[in-house]
Fold:
Amino acid sequence: MNIAIIGAGVTGVTLAHALLQDGHHVHVFEQRQTAAEEASYACGGLLSAGWASPLAAPGMVWDMLYPGSSPTAIRMGQWPRPSDAAWLLRWWMHTSRKAHAAQQGAALALTQLSLRELARTNADLGLEYETTEGLTVLVRSAHDRERIDPYLQWLNASNVPHQVGDATFGLSKEPALNRQTPIHTAIHLPRDGVGNCRQFTGALKQVVQERGAEFSFGHTVRAIRPTETGVELDVQAQRTTSLAPLTFDTVVLCSGVASLGLLKPLNIQLPLNQLRSHSLSANLRDPMDAPRSGVVDSLHNIGITRLGQRVRITGGQALGSASAAQHKGVLKQLYAALFDWFPGAAHMSSVQTWSGQTPVVPDGLPVLGATALPGVWLNIGHGLRGWSMASGSARVLADQLVQRDTGIDARAFSAQRWHKAP
Ligand SMILES: Cc1cc2nc3c(=O)[nH]c(=O)nc-3n(C[C@H](O)[C@H](O)[C@H](O)COP(=O)(O)OP(=O)(O)OC[C@H]3O[C@@H](n4cnc5c(N)ncnc54)[C@H](O)[C@@H]3O)c2cc1C
Structure:
């Protein structure tokens, strides 16, 4: 098949790799000058099946509406408008215990598949990018431990390999942790880890391009038109005003948050919203004072990761477009987490701040597969787990395109799950 991919972030490039392996002709269109310049640019790097920080879980809507009720609450970028009501109502419906359990199960299956696929890609291609093994979740107090008990029960029930211990155990996994900050419980997830998403995407793009995939950087897809035999795309090269119509058998949107604009004229029923999150990156001052791998502060759901000679702190989630005041508040929290856990780790003069947006739907699961429009497929909506889910999503889509068994039950991710029954 002749397949177009819109977007050269981590989901677009991993999909290009999977489709090429199946013998398809692949053409990737990317509006920026290189790969991984949007949400995949400075993400936390956590590659995790075991730290499940879902978008939709019991109590989350309450926590959002009553700031201060929970330090991990998702915020609204702005006060909800009447047009947000339908989305928020759907979100609330997906926060029931039953819905949450099903969503957690589906997300776990996809991330586990993804980590297996990523390991296979690493073994096959020997890509060079920064990685470390293991993830340690830190719980500060008995009260916080109570709050995360359902998570520990879920780890046990789902057979996710993990070890639970006290402060000494936590320090054995991450010896540079600040001894002044109390640790009540440490949970270690040996199968999870950290990887530099941007480096990986760039390295994989290189291989995929050498193996025959076409990449058109500085090219923006302006419109998608289904035709009788496939799809037509209007593509605009940078610094030109003309649109070149190009035809393909199929197009897959891996276009992140910009998918909202591309899908609107197509009238596809998909309740997409955007989620913004933030990161701080700084050069290491002394590697001995830095994390070995990935650490999560469970109180604020903040990740602290080691990426080569840098440390990155990520957190804060806001639905819709975040205000400047919120941005400042989140950055303050990220600095505080770094000083609490690894006070001597970073050269503070080298700090770079960043925020990125990803699309989300109310159940917090990605949207993978064929839409109701022939030839138009989606690989979007991964929220804050896109790096962890990219290789699995690519596998699922590549299998579905040739009607091969996907190995996991992918119905929960269907791009048509929002269609009303006739
Ligand atoms: C602060 C932060 C921390 C995160 N931490 C983690 C983490 O620790 N672990 C994890 O698993 N995930 C994490 N994520 C989530 C992860 O980064 C994203 O889910 C993932 O990068 C999404 O990749 P993508 O390829 O779908 O989107 P993007 O990287 O945004 O790529 C989409 C691409 O499409 C291009 N594009 C859009 N429209 C067009 C068009 N019309 N024509 C041509 N090109 C177009 C864009 O330019 C862009 O390059 C984090 C996200 C943020 C913001």
The CA atoms of residues 104 and 144 lie 21 Å apart. The pocket of flavin-adenine dinucleotide is lined by residues 6-12, 29-32, 36-40, 43-46, 220-221, 254-256, 258, 262, 277-279, 303, 314, 356, 358, 382, 384-388 (CB under 6 Å). The chain has a mean pLDDT of 93.
